[in-house]
Predict the structure.
Amino acid sequence: MKKVTLIATATMGLEALVAREVRSLGYEDVQVENGKVTFTADVSAIPRANLWLRTADRIKLQVGQFKACSFDELFEKTKALPWADLIPVHGEFPVIGKSVKSKLFSVSDCQAIVKKAVVESMKTRYKRGWFDENGPFYRIEVALHKDVATLSIDTSGTGLHKRGYRYLHNEAPLKETLAAAMIMLTTWKPELPLVDPFCGSGTIPIEAAMIGQNIAPGFNREFVSEDWHWIGKKTWDAARQEVEDVANYDQPLDILGSDIDHRSVELSKGNAMEAGFSDLISFKQMQIKDFTHSREYGVMIGNPPYGERLMERPEVEQMYKDMGNVCNRLETWSIYMLTSHEGFETLFGKQASKKRKLYNGNLKVDYYQFFGPRPPKS
């Protein structure tokens, strides 16, 4: 099978996790940069990366990369790339773009030039002067960074955080990719209980259930590259069969999501049902200060309110204090909380074992990690 270069895009702060996931799929040639992980693999990596990567935003196929300081250079070098090998005669190929610290800073001009160059390249191969663009979808991106142009085609379609289970969400939903990352940055193992006391629309408990049973996050959705002739149905079928073969549906799990708001609890139940986990995850309405658990070792992961709005701040700060009191009693548990509130440790009453800078949307947040003792080996 021919080799391709793929780019897994990532939210700032999650690149190392995405790289770890790419390597765990068996791909060796991995390069990590800001906001992306590039790797070389055969074509079967396109379905596999789309189906399996929990923390990546999307998978792009790199068509070419070159220096471009003038529009002529951008046009000629784009035209020289093998577009007709990838895009069929009736393919639809819109162009999007971005430019950072580059001489060619007009994104709309760069997009227009790339579009024209791709059309010229395809005219030569297909011996025709016009393309209807009414077939499979190939969204091209021209990304300029310090005068280096990277031309790619998006293989995912909708972003990978859209797993297909969350039809309903509350006003500030946690992205599924970030929820998965929060779980993967903990010491949680499927044999331990996992609790999210601020479950919102149930994203952390549902992502945990998928991780716990080794279910691919993309099992329940479609991808734009399923229609691409040069990947082929066989390759996609094989990747989907692998997803089915390695899932561990018999793995018992002890996952609880709770929330002070009964609407959130109902929302979470609906989403868990959509994902096929209604019998695996428990949800209940509860305040954090009332939380107790019968098992000695466990993991608590949460994305509590941050108190960004001034009127909410006193309430949120009291809740952090309540959380600290509850977690004091859970001395053998590991606690992981994501918040932008800089006074979190003081209010919680304990210094984190480790703090990690992440982004929730455009908001800079800290992931506070309080490690409990390791459970004894059973």
